[in-house]
Amino acid sequence: MSRTDGEARNNRWVQAQNSRLETIRGLRRHHVTLVRPSLRRRRGRVAVVTDAACGLPVDPTTGRPVLGVLGEHLEIVPIPVMIDRGHRDQRPEMYPEYSPELSRDLPLALAQGLPVRTSRPAVGRIGQVYQRLHQQGFSAVVSIHLSAHLSGTYDAAVLAAESAPLPVNVVDSHHAGLGLGQAALWAAMQARTGADLEWVTANVNGMVASSRSVFAVPSLEQLRRGGRINRIASVFGSMMRIKPVLELRQGEIAPLELTHSMNRAVSRMQEAAISHVQQIDAADTPRLGVQYCGNLQQAQDLADKLQPHSSEPVPVLELPPALAAHLGLGALGITITKDGHPLLRTPPGYLS
Predict the structure, then answer these.
(1) CATH architecture for the domain at 212-337
(2) Closest CA to 59 of 24, 115, 109, 103
(3) What pLDDT, in 10s, does the model give residues 129-186?
(4) Crossing angle, helix 3-34 and helix 178-192, to 10 degrees?
(5) How many CB atoms are located within 10 Å of the residue 277 CB?
(6) What is the CB neighbour count within 10 angstroms for residue 298?
(7) Cα–Cα dist 97/167, whole Å
(8) Are the C-beta atoms of residues 343 and 31 closer than 8 Å to each other?
(9) Which of 93, 218, 246, 352 could form a Cys-Cys staple with 330, CB 3.0–4.6 A?
(10) Rounded CA gap, 196 and 198, in Å?
């Protein structure tokens, strides 16, 4: 499959999200009439904030996520990425999260084995986002972030929320990449159709609790450099030529299976994803997505095999730089999410 075919696949996925938004809008219109007419007056008052570890389709010319109409309700906080070129008289070069230069230089740096790291967004930077949303007329924010076990971004958001000029509910997604991106999209869709702060928060918490992410990396070295695993595990894995299948378990990186070839790791990852989907009720609309770093063809082949098990087109998305910096070239991941139609199921305590 060519890159053009892959872009067409992702375009179909974007169209599916637009259809999903219209479905939610219709369900919500019906639900508001039956349950809570006052929600009509709350339309457009909740904003959603996430961070640049989220996996979303990007514009190849700018590197920025394609958000469409949801961009009115969804803000993405950048995560700084730094490349150390080994020059004693120079500090590591810091890149804006969305820049053509980063898209060009990061794969080269990873291939050359240069130290690449990330830094959590500054508390003040997140606070500025909350302040701007308040000035734009929003009355509340749901702030959904990369797993607190993987980054300090969640903690920074909690600190920023304490001095925000509007109510902010900060959610630890326990995920990264597409798992985080899907949660942010889902929240923005809810906000776009007029849901209030408690409603959006309850539904997003439900979604992230039922999502699953599995991934494989050809080497543990990049994870070790980023402090995501310890040195002993990395050295042992390299000596034994282990290609691990990993998962995010309660937000932490945990081994699912140890294999000795990347092909076997990908096969095992595929089996685990399909097994998980088979446990999901079809009414809950299971969705699968694939992310990759430098191995597009392998990712597209995997997506083809997963397509029969997904309720909509399987997107093939490049890992955001904030994650690629830690997973390295050749990384491959699958995310499974579901949402069903929670607008027909009032969150606990919502009407009390």
Answers:
(1) 2-Layer Sandwich (3.30)
(2) 103
(3) 999 999 999 999 999 999 999 999 999 999 999 999 999 999 999 999 999 999 999 9
(4) 40
(5) 21
(6) 16
(7) 27
(8) yes
(9) 218
(10) 6
